[in-house]
Structure formats: structure tokens, C-alpha cells
Structure prediction request, 271 residues.
Amino acid sequence: MKVDVHTHVFHDKIAEKACNQLLEHYGYPLTADGTAGTLLKMMDRAGIDKSFVLSAATNPDQVIPANTWAMTLGKNERFIPFGTIHPSFTGWEAEFDRLEKNGIKGIKIHPDFQGFNLDSEIMFPLYEAMQNRFAVLFHVGDVPPPDKNPSSPQKLARVLENFPDLTCIAAHLGGYLHWDWVIDSYKGKDIFIDTSSSLNFISDTQLKKILNSFPEESILFGSDYPINDPNKEIELLKKRAGFSDDRIEKIMEQGMSVFERLKSKLPDNHV
Prediction:
């Protein structure tokens, strides 16, 4: 089963607005309209069976509707939706229960858009509750240097030191534009990294060092649809990394191993 672990899908009514916001932030032209229908067509062209679909509430009022939307997407068997949470959202314990009861097995954290530092202690109770319960995909990195940016490899490393039972994916090869710090920060950590929104920006030296420093089973394919076309990202990964078709296929088949790792950490009586 080939999996894209990093996509975003918006309701048809707000897809254009959401895509414009992404364009404004990153200054990088998008390849698609952000709708579910277009993602499914691109998945078919790329031979992708399932996609993780991510969202991040930028304020506490967005948490419930965003999670309800995720549950709706989950009705399509080709989508694996992740929920969202916000540190200012009250009643997160009940919301975690609602996510779990509706089959949501992952949560996306995007400190840069959500307005907090990734390693802020305001998040510690939530991280504690996510351990052994949800897979967590973290956005990591941006233009500001690690000490100035809300997210960074160093900040995620601190979280994992405090919460070693988090089943964690660090997006963008561990930290968008923070690649010089990825290897040292995550050394000895139990962590996945995805390839999303990195291949057009990372140097050959940085790319080879990172890919050679992580266990192959910890590297996951991510496209960052609608910013990128999954099929073009597969071809770019082949070209930039020099991977064979068999190795690319193996990386794409590893996405579901995130949940296998999560399952292995669950208590025996977990439902």
C-alpha cells in the first residue's frame, strides 16, 4: 500500500481562500486547488493508495469544526484524516475522546500557524495525553533561525526528551530550512521524518546527509498537496536522492508503519 503522509484538503467553499493564504505565507505557487476531488485524481496518477490529510486550527474556535471536517473526510477509505488541537482550546480532554471515538488516530501540530512555541510548557499536558494514543505530525522549521522560530528541530527534540512515548513525524525532512540542525537534534530519538516541501530547497549535501543518517524505515513520503503534485514529488525524490524505483516504493509503503508503532505502544486493554 503506497501512502502519502502529508496532504491538506479544504472544503470546496473555503479551498480558494485557504490556498491563497498558503501562497501568501510561503510565496510558492501551488499546483492544485486544495479540494478532495483533485487530490484523489492526483493520487490515482501517482499510484498512491492512501493519504494522510492534515489540518491545524489557528485559533481555538476552529478546533471542533476542523475536527468534524476531518471525520467527514474519514468516510472516504482512501483518506486517513488527522485531527487538530490548540493550546487555548478548553475541554481538550473531551475533544481527544471525540477524535478517538470517531476513528481519528493522528493529530497535526503547526506551531508557526497556531501561534505558540513547539516546546512551550503550555503544550505539555496535551503532549502527555497524546502519548500512546495518537500519532503526531509536527510542522518543523521556517525562514527564521531555530532560536527565533516557533518550531525547530531543537524544540521538537526537547519535547521528545520529555515525552519519549510520542509517536512522532517531523515534517519537511525534520525541519524546513533548518536542515543543518536535524541530525544532531534527533540523534537517538524515536522519530519519523517525511519528505514534504523539502526537495526543491535543500542542498545535495544536506539531503544526502539526512537520508543517510536516519534508518530507512523512518523515512516517509509526503507531497504537501496542494502545494506540490504528488507524482512530481515522487519523480523529484528519485532524481535528487538517486533512489531506485524499488527504494521509492518501499518508502511509500512505510506510511502505515506509523500506526503499527503507535499500536505497539498501546496498553493491552486499549480499545
